[in-house]
Fold these 4 entries.
Entry 1:
Amino acid sequence: MARSPFIAGNWKMNTTKASAVDLANAVAAGVPAGVETGIAVPFVYIDAVAQAVAHSKLVVGAQDVYFEKAGAFTGEVSVDMLKDVGAHFVLTGHSERRHVLNEPGELVSKKAHAAYAGGLTVVHCVGEKLEERDANTTFAVVEKQLNELSTKMDNPNRVVIAYEPVWAIGTGRNATDAQAQEVHAFVRQTVAKIWNKDFADKVRIQYGGSMKPENAKGLLGQPDVDGGLIGGAALKVDSFLAIVNAAV
Ligand code: PEP
């Protein structure tokens, strides 16, 4: 089953308005054909960045969203607000939301469902902590996180699963090609059980965790790795585009 690769940069809480627009313009100018490429931008810069790259192939997204439509939710941002300023996709369940901001599985699942129902593409992150890998519970953790998501999101073009081992995020220590492939194959198998085989064959599964130009080709060459979610290396145009080009 040929799945088209999707590479997304996660800028986290970085850039200024000016540097965000410059970086987005530089990335947009170099996006090759055949690789869906996106950037998840801080909320406050989505509008400016989306306008700057509106006529390019680069897709703009957000790093989080709230599940309610509107109302007294101080500080939160809705799906409609994201769409209003030009976001097309959103990350949900990123490990920093789960483990630094302490968001439980039920909350990240509600966010994913609201985003999907509102028409955004959902990039839903799963992955184990180091102590969970060491305790041989990687599969159990990932299975639980996928089960929490349930089956209502049925368009495989608007659902992406990002497998991001927490111990590999921002640490410089990536999963090996074999470690990534092993969990990606498990994710696909689990998605087939929870959704169905056709959905599982079509859904893209990104790898995230210290992906960089030097390791991108190997990771992206694995049969069940359909792209990458890139943190640190997405903040520099050369390293991000080198990764995108490794997916061609
Ligand atoms: C991430 O933030 O999703 C990520 C994978 O970060 P890094 O590439 O810096 O490890």
Entry 2:
Amino acid sequence: MPADSGIAEAAAVLRDGGLVAFPTETVYGLGANALDARAAARIFEAKARPSFDPLITHLADTADLEKLVGPVRPAVAALAERFWPGPLTLIVDRPAEIPPIVTSGLDTMAVRVPDEPSARALIRAAGVPVAAPSANRFGQLSPTRAEHVVKGLGAAVEVVLDGGPTRCGIESTIVDARGAQPVVLRLGALALEELVEAVGPVSVRPGSSGQPVAPGTLAAHYAPRTPLRVVGGTQPAPAAGGRRGFLAFRERPADGYAAVEVLSPAGDVTEAAARLFDALHRLDAAGVTEILAEAAPDTGVGRAINDRLRRAAATWDPAG
Ligand code: TXA
Ligand code: MG
């Protein structure tokens, strides 16, 4: 359904406990009424998501935060004020109205106001906070187009709102600003530099805590089906034999790859982030045996790109 004309119907589905996939400025989300434990349970089922991986609650307006959770720490309020609507997720105390399944039993809750008019209109029309992880099966590539959602989740979703390709292309930055110094739990579409400019020094701890605080930070995640390897330094010449794909940051590699995607001919990390998952979806569908991916410059959103590539390259080893 088109993202604009489908809103009333999609909002009704949400209120009835159904699942609606919708565009945000980062990636497509798989939404359910966050006040309804059964609806939230359906998200975990549809995504085959482990129950230990908490969901992000989405609100229509910044002012809805304190209506839902009560007063928050000044640092949290300041970040919300500065960056919402936008690709920043904040950690707050879980209010009693939000059932524990949404937060995987944590007494904290991740929350954000997306910067996408149709998403905010949907949440407003539904009249409830909307729990939404990325609309992909657990561990797989994130969806940046409605087609990706349909391909990955299919009949598990009642409605997919199609708002075209998402603007940022990479998930929100997750920040816990409740303590003395803000901690970045997941690198994302809000660049670290912008965050530091607003709040001063932050620490970056994606996944290092060893506890499932932000499983988007699990070592293996965001993975294509095709094995992926990250290459640094100069572009490698294509090896003989096999069909390989190449994900280039800026320059096309030498001939010899069966499929090539260039993220940003202009060398712009923001543009590259917007194209990252779409390019990986295409390479994954190109029938290659391996994808070589060139690292992005480690600045701005480039850091989040490299974070996603590293996790896409890691193999899933629950024992490791
Ligand atoms: O950009 C985004 O954030 C997208 C769009 C749809 O808003 N959503 C998204 O959701 O990326 P998901 O489920 O794919 O990733 C949510 C991340 C997970 O890594 C989860 O562990 C973390 O947020 N998270 C959720 N609640 C948390 C909490 N209370 N404390 C720490 N991390 C939390
Ligand atoms: Mg995800």
Entry 3:
Amino acid sequence: MVVLGIETTCDETAAAVVERPAVGRGRILSNIVLSQTDEHAAFGGVVPEIAARAHAETLDAIIARAMNDAGASFASLDAIAAASGPGLIGGLIVGLTTAKAIALVCGRPLIAVNHLEAHALTARLTDGVGFPYCLFLASGGHTQIVAVRGVGDYVRLGTTMDDAVGEAFDKTAKLLGLPYPGGPQVEKEAEGGNAGRFALPRPMLGKLNADFSLSGLKTALRLEAEKIAPIGAQDVRDLCASFQQAVIDVVADRLRCGLKMFRAQHGAPTALVAAGGVAANAQIRRVLQRVAFEAGTTLVVPPAELCTDNGAMIAWAGAERHAHGLHDTLDTAPRPRWPLAEVRAAQAALIPAPVAPEPPREGA
Ligand code: KG4
Ligand code: ZN
């Protein structure tokens, strides 16, 4: 099964062609990502209107390149998938409308993919991970611990009460005058810093649930920076290292709780899977490895370029849904707000009998 996937939820314009065999991991035939970072850098964050215009200007060429690199013709596709939420409405309209046009002209099914579901299923594309697994999804807009029980069957175990992990990295970077996007910059600065110099709080540590809270940490960092202003280059490195260590401690503690909840509610997970841009952080990966080992499971992290936003994950999620007969109609609307837990319910009315080699689990 060969599927074209389109990603335009935020500041990457991306398209990819992916093949899903009846069993096992997938094959990426092409994966083109055009980042808009330069266009937003001057503003210290993503400007929705600039993003939407950039998607509209470049998407056709990105799709043409993805099709060309894959050596695929539109007639050879089995389905067209587009991320239709959650995300910025302008970009969603561009991506979903383009996918609808291709689906209509080719007479192929449209699959409106939830961006978070795509992150959640990427480890099946890259590593063929079986259900059920424990997902740690940490990106610029989302921080969640999720039991992934099957395609369209997600149970949220924990989430953030305020900032997402990536957002906290981005805000820290902005505060310290580092360029956007902040995550990789903070990680780089932290390498040369002293993580023990500033005593920052570890919010939620020891709480019995698996929820996060990061806004207090961000505020504490600002107060420390203000105390020693004007800050020099080494101060920035020490602040970054102290911040990153606090995040690592919080992530480890919250995941330990999440994995305990997973075991109690769903049995042993096949793996701890990390996804989203934050999983590109080497220090965070290291602690995830340790937490997985302690919990008697293994860590699976897709390669960094598949952890950050891309079209291959959308194509794969589309292929997984197509394999279960989960299609969408051409009047499907983009959904700027679309929690993962609502994916199944949102699609339920459209579900015909499953045709997959791997039937959905109970209730999917
Ligand atoms: O998944 P993603 O590409 O886009 C969203 O859907 O948000 O994640 C982007 C987020 C940004 O907040 C970025 O700062 C963060 O992931 N990020 C990192 C690193 N690389 C990207 N955070 C910490 N360390 C990194 N190395
Ligand atoms: Zn994302």
Entry 4:
Amino acid sequence: MTTLPYQDPSRPVEERVDDLLARLTLDEKAGQLTQYFYFGGFGELPEGVDVGALPPELRSFVEQPKGVEAALGHGGAGSLLFVRDPAIANRLQKLAIEGSRLGIPLIFGFDVIHGLRTILPAPIALAASWDPEVIEQGQAVAAREARAVGIHWTFAPMVDIARDPRWGRIIEGAGEDPFLGAAVCAAQVRGFQGDLGPESVLAGPKHYAGYGAAVGGRDYDDADISDSELWNVYFPPFKGGIDAGARNIMSAYMDLNGVPASGNRWLLTDVLRDELGFDGFVVSDANAVRSLETQHFARDLTDAAVRALDAGLDMEMCMSDAAYSRLPRAVADGLVDEATVDLAVRRVLRAKVELGVFEHPYVDESATAGVLARADHRDVAREAAEHTLVLLKNADAALPLDAARLGSIAVIGQLADSQRDLLGPWVFDHDATEAVSILQGIRDAATGAAVTFAPGAGIPPRLYASMFDRMDPSAVNTPGDYDDDAAIAEAVEAAAAADVAVVVIGQRQNQIGENASSAVLDLPGRQLEQLQRIVATGTPVVALVMSGRPLDLRWADAHVPAILQVWYPGTRGGEAVANALFGAVSPAGRLPFTWPRHVGHVPLYYNHYRTFQPDNQAKRYWEEPSTPLYVFGHGLSYAEFAYGNLRLDRDSIAVGETATVSVDVTNTSGRDADEVVQLYIHQRSGTSTRPVRELKGFARVVVKAGDTVTVSLPLGPGELRYWSAVTRGWLQDATTIDVFAGGSSAAGLATTLTVTA
Ligand code: BGC
């Protein structure tokens, strides 16, 4: 059999792509630009079900896999998503290769957001580690497991800046800050993509761009963002991922400033390609091309396909009946150039060639079991979780608990023994029974103490069922006939009888994530009342907060001595939490968002502008302080740190030059611990006003008891330039820059840097 040039791995990538592209028909090209969901992995229908008699929605779901398989037979799809079974992947791959004229393999995409089988802490928690190495290592584990089941590409990381915690997807990102967001995105891309070898997956930062600014925090609603905010706040995390080599970007659903992101040429081409330097391929969010019609932007599906493609959207992700299947007709009718189709196909084929799927299209089914949930993967998950815990409050060194001295511990809360909730949303291939709950973690660590458990207050279910719950038989909900009065009374009694009460409060995993925006930040149900009654017993209380967003902790902050933010800490979360509770680990995570006192304060973020009457910043509301409950970057430690000797290697630099900022951090306590050193700037005057503080550097360092560590960070054009609405471009001012260093955005140690023209 002769080897055609595109099949020859010894030839350069571009040559192979050119060769293959030249052989494709227009229909085959449209196929390569189409990605279908595949819903065939959800098991067989029960016997005797008459498909024809099912309601239309269910029937199309049941029949959907057949349509996809038919398309594969004639090169009608370039990629599939939602296939996580290696045997199914191989079967579909065979259909694609053998059924199509040129035998082009599929790439399989999936949402491997924070682990596949071994579940890492949720992404917002990973960001709270402020530790790019830990994040990279974690996502490398996720990539290895994904690849072991046949997945080539993950729809991650999500890098949308979230300034409104009502938006449920805040949990999938890195919070509110562009600098932290860019670093966390880059680390994830490095982790996922590695060397693009057999244990790597393509990464696709999403959702480009502005999705996190949905009005009212209501998922999918439109976003209105100024150009200045787009350039300075919303684009930088994408830039971080692109510079780290991300091969894919996913476009967002919503309207951005009156134009849907998925049909927005300025966004997808002018900015993404020409300014941010992206050279991979863009995929739409699920059904987002079709949605151009739904959003009353496109006239019909042909118009939607033409405008999305023209805008720079290369591949359409959809359930069935791809809008892009209309492209050949649209070319024939002169609605779009074939050259535009070719540009997109070239980008998709390049990704396939680079990933080596032509040479290795099939996954080794016999190797899968040995990779999933490997012991070393589980260790990475535990270590990552330990890095993400944020000690919000610790009055009178209430924590760590001394396990040896405690006779009894009451563990309270439904979330304490929920293996499923611990894993967070956006997991599908977990095995909840492999997860170590908080209760289990405490029991295993405090073997000398009598550990009692009371589930206590119910957590009311969602008013509208989650679409994810329907796909997840392991999802937990409080039963409808749950006797809250009795359960709370029992929990209070258990707390009263114990030496210490560890109360887990928060939201279930299906109360955060996609399609899980909240109108309020209150603890669901009667959890607050229960906490109040437990505190009233006089038993010392530790509150563990399981959430992916800030909740209203005003009462807890005023009355509970110790509060630890545990997020959704993943497969070995319970052990990590216990290690922090009993002092084997000192918490060193830091908040990646500002924690408001109350939902009425949102959006509230640290990098706001100075504006009129800055001295009254804390008094913007008449009835309570308008300051955060906990500032951005906040997080306490069991150790104590002193910052000093903040210095610059020179007091003055010219525009374009770089100064080095150094600060000494001394661990003045008797125990070793990690500390997150943060560097902020403020520009005193210039072409535009700049925020009161902006994070421009950080380092998570280990500081041994009594030691001093010096951290040095650069301040140059990369940190000092910004996009100005005055010149409508990037610039750096000659000005005075305040420089702050410390353990949070409230860092007090300051110096100044002069920048001359
Ligand atoms: C989400 C994306 C996700 C896609 C595929 C969409 O609803 O917005 O983030 O990657 O579904 O599952």
